Amino acid sequence: MTNPTQPEPPALAAATAMFVEVLVVGIGTLTAAMLLFIALMGPATTTKLAPIADSSLAAGVGLAAAYALGILIDRAADTILTPQRRRLRTRHFPAHNTYAQARLHLSDYPALAARADYARSRMRICRGWLLNTMALTLTADLAMLRYSFPHRPLILCATTLLGAMIAFGFYRAWHSLTDTGYRKLAEQTTPAASPLIPGQPQPGAVPT
Fold first, then answer.
1. pLDDT of residue 14
2. Mean pLDDT value of segment 26-34
3. Could you give the CA distance from residue 120 to residue 154 in angstroms, rounded to a whole number?
């Protein structure tokens, strides 16, 4: 049964959180797309088109495009990382049915479910920005190749190295969050013990 003392989170708040999450990922993807456009068009054309970016219409179109691209990059990142995600899941859940039952059981405890949703939100942002970072690094390098400025080779090397390090950091964060999420879900929904609901002593538990 659902614990009456822990109310369900508002549907509007959950929808807003999802919108922001997708938008955070999509803004990075849109930025990479704009850098690619700059690299393809070159300095002269970019300078002529720059005033358009200051218009309200461009801002609205950019926001819509960022949201749509966020959905696209999230699905792409999930598809790419699915084999690794499944390997992590099998460490704690030998079968998909076991995992599905654990998710269903956790939904009976809104406090724990909310924490799991927050962890999954961070995981999705990390996997989306893993692809974003690689795309931004590549497009930034391409854009810089179209411009002449001092120490360009050094800046190109530094940008590429920094991008690779950040991308690896996002991958490690995604890996850690995913593995930890599966482990906690397995611990909280094991048949041998009921989930530890915050603020409520469990039978036989020793207070700390």
1. 66
2. 95
3. 38
Inter-axis angle of helices 11-49 and 110-145, nearest 10 = 10
Could you tell me which of 135, 144, 132 has the C-alpha nearest to residue 174?
Answer: 132
Distance CA 112, CA 10 (A): 15
Angle at 77 between CA 98 and CA 128, to 5 degrees: 110
Give the number of other CB atoms < 10 A from CB of residue 197.
Answer: 16
pLDDT at 13: 64
pLDDT at 85 exceeding the cut of 80: yes
Which residue in this structure is represented by tokens 């013990």? Answer: 193
Residue with tokens 């068009």: 41
The better pLDDT of the pair 188, 194 is held by 188
pLDDT tens-digit series, residues 115-124 = 888 888 999 9
